[in-house]
Every structure is written in C-alpha cells, then in structure tokens.
C-alpha cells in the first residue's frame, strides 16, 4: 500500500517502499514551507497596516493630531531615548514599570499555583473558600488601583499589589482547573502502587496541570504589565503609565502610541522567553502535528 501524507493541504502520495526517512524529510519540508508562508503573511500584513497608517496621515485622510503617524511615533521614541522624557530617562521609566510588573508577576504566579493546587487537591477547603474567591474575582480588578494607591501610596507597593491581583486569579483558576482535570485512572493506579498524597500530587497531578499553568503564564505577564500601567496611570511619579498620562494631558498622540509600542515590544519579548522556558520544561509533551487546514 502506498504511503500517504499531506503537505499544506494537498495530498502527496509516496511509492510503495518509500523509507521512513524520506517521508519524515518530506514532512519537515512541508512544515518549513508552511512556516515560511505564515511568516510572509505576518510581515506583509504588518507592512500594509503601517504603510496605510503613514499614507493616511500624510494625505490627511485621518487627522494626524489625533492619530499621529508611524514616522511620528518613531521620532518620539528616538527623542525619548536620546534626550529623555519630561519625567527623566526613558529607560528609567521603563525599568520602573518592568520592576513593578515582574514582582507582581512572580508573586502572583507562585501564589496562584500554590493556592490553585492546594485547593484543587482539597475539596473541603475549596468548598469553604470558593464563595470568597468568586466574590473577589467578580470585582473589576483595575478599579482597585485607587484603593491600593490610597492605602499604600504612589510608590512601588501599590503598583505591585495591582499587578499581583491581576496575575493571581488568572494563574489560580488555571492551576485549580488543571488539578481537577487530572487523569483519575493515573491517580488510582498511583494509589494502588502505594503512593502517598504528596507523591500523587508531585508525580501525577502537578505534571497533568502544567499545560494549564503554562497557558495562564503566557497571558498573565501581559496582565501584570496592565496592572502596573493602570496603577501608574492613576497616580505615580515615574513609569510608562505616567508617560501615557502626560501624553494624554498634552494631546501628544505620538507619545501615547510610542509608550504603547514599548509595552507591546516588552510583552512580546516576555512571551517569547516564556515559550522557550515552557518548551524546555515540558519536553515530555508530544509534538504537535502539522495542521494542514
């Protein structure tokens, strides 16, 4: 019987006797071709959007005062990088926001994982605390920024607290659900072999929940950045959120877009690093097959 594989949606037939190495090489070639095509369209869409933005601004199809232009945004970034901002060095303001986000991210992630796994493994405690967790989670967390600033002041603690809250509930929910979705047959087999509760949690439950946990970590750093920036936007002396607030007050559209661009770049770099860490820690997972749709 002829071997059959699929390349980018079209069937490719192999002669009888085709070696596994040839089939694998063909599959890898198809994957590389698809990845190249995806990258091409990603870049093409980005170039088109930026080009249309620049053209629309130059031709006055949109009001440059409100929408600025890509060239204006880059000029503002260059000005901030070389001459500084009204609130000091751009890099210092970026570091302030990153410090707040990173502390909130790590504290919220670690706490969320431990609490999620702990309550997921203890139904009695989860039943007790579930109503309180749901009540707190129902509050739009960004509205807590004025409360934290009123209690903790304009410094680092209030921004970290908001970033912590933004991250905690995302990670907690995924860790909790990941524990609840653990394979019951594997847990039962481990108990039959004499594993203790801690051994079951460490060797079966936590590995099963890792995909859920990593999925939450991918988005939670963005939430940490949001928490830090919202806190700075409400009240701060330094930070990217403060730069956005000043740009808003002076109708500096280029400054607002420049600050947003900085946040996007930082978040994408963090996402890339998170993916590398996930791939390194989760080598046991089966590789995803090429989706030809």
Description:
The protein is mostly helical and 293 residues long. It has helices spanning 20-58, 64-67, 70-83, 90-121, 123-137, 145-152, 156-180, 184-192, 197-234, 240-249, 253-281, and strands spanning 3-7, 10-14. The protein has a two-stranded antiparallel sheet. Strand 1 (3-7) and strand 2 form a beta hairpin. The chain is flat, with a radius of gyration of 25 Å. The model is unreliable at 1-11 and 288-293 (pLDDT under 50).
Which keywords apply here?
disordered N terminus; disordered C terminus; 2 strands; 76% helix; mainly alpha; single chain; 293 residues
- Helical segment count: 11
Protein structure class: mainly alpha
Radius of gyration: 25 Å
**Beta-strand fraction estimate:** under 5%
> Order of strands across the biggest sheet?
1-2
> Number of DSSP strands?
2
Alpha carbon gap, first and last residue: 25 Å
Integer average pLDDT: 83
What is the succession of H and E elements?
EEHHHHHHHHHHH
Percent of residues in helices comes to over 70%
Identify low-pLDDT runs.
1-11, 288-293
Give the overall silhouette.
flat
Main beta sheet strand tally, sense and closure: 2 strands, antiparallel
Oligomer: single chain
SSE layout:
Blueprint: E1 3-7, E2 10-14, H1 20-58, H2 64-67, H3 70-83, H4 90-121, H5 123-137, H6 145-152, H7 156-180, H8 184-192, H9 197-234, H10 240-249, H11 253-281
Antiparallel strand pairs: 1-2
Helix pairs in contact: 3-11, 4-7, 4-9, 6-7, 7-9, 8-9, 9-10, 9-11, 10-11
